[in-house]
Amino acid sequence: MPGDAGLFGPDSVTWRVHADPVLWVAGLRALLLQAVHPAAMAGVLQHSDFRADPWGRLRRTADYVGVVSFGSTAEVEAIGRRVRALHATVRGHDDATGVSYRASDPTLLCWVHCCEVESFLTTFQRAGGGLSPAEVDEYYAEQTRAASVVGLDPATVPASAVEIAAYFDRMRPQLAVDERARRVAGYVLRPPMARWVALATPARPAWAGVAGLSAALLPRWARRLYRLPGLPTTDASATAAVRALRLASTQAPQRYREGPHLRSARARLAS
């Protein structure tokens, strides 16, 4: 419908954060963070086509975030129905941990949600986003609406910076990086490319640089799980690098800085 702002609208903190070109780095960080949950990894490896089609999986994930962030009410409801129906079919048993899982489990859904929103917010802030503490809390509170799209009760989802930090503190004893997580991380850091693309274009080194930056932006405890440097100097270097990347991105023409979902939302609200 013309004028339909969807879940959030142009005055929301969500639009400010999710419209930023640095969010694609945040998306890779979120995938690496999600991978440290063994049950989440079991579901990905047993039911996802991530290994066969990593680019398609990344594109569909970006499309989902774009629709939920900027889509109309009808578009958000439609994609929510599709995702919930898919989750209802995904279940299994992880032989490595002896744990049975199902994708519709609120515990796993909350993990995926919190990894996403914490990655989006943290990367945006470290890149120079400049949100105030009140705006940070407002963002997390807004994102409980996004959590409801996948079937979570918004009242059970962390809704502030303090609640997000406490959530990850509670989860840390359950987290581990095993060989499976490293394989998934490998697909994020070095996805397959057509031979001519890898050899005749700068795509391979460019992707490696951005993906490496997303790993450096992980919290120290997660980097240590991956056996990556967990020093404060790594934090400082990653912050400087993502600020430079964001600055360079903002100099690009608007048609390259804004995704199709944001452009569609602007047109819908202007009509």
Q: If you had to describe this structure to a student in words, what would you say it looks like?
A:
By secondary structure, the protein is mostly helical. It has helices at residues 13-18, 23-34, 38-47, 54-70, 73-89, 106-126, 133-149, 161-171, 179-189, 195-200, 203-216, 220-225, 232-250, 254-257, 260-270; strands at 91-94, 99-102. It is built from 15 helices and 2 strands. The protein has a two-stranded antiparallel sheet with strand order 1-2. A hairpin with a 4-residue loop joins strand 1 and strand 2 (99-102). The longest helix has 21 residues, at 106-126. The termini are close together.
Q: What's the layout of helices and strands?
A:
Elements: H1 13-18, H2 23-34, H3 38-47, H4 54-70, H5 73-89, E1 91-94, E2 99-102, H6 106-126, H7 133-149, H8 161-171, H9 179-189, H10 195-200, H11 203-216, H12 220-225, H13 232-250, H14 254-257, H15 260-270
Antiparallel strand pairs: 1-2
Helix pairs in contact: 2-6, 2-11, 4-15, 6-7
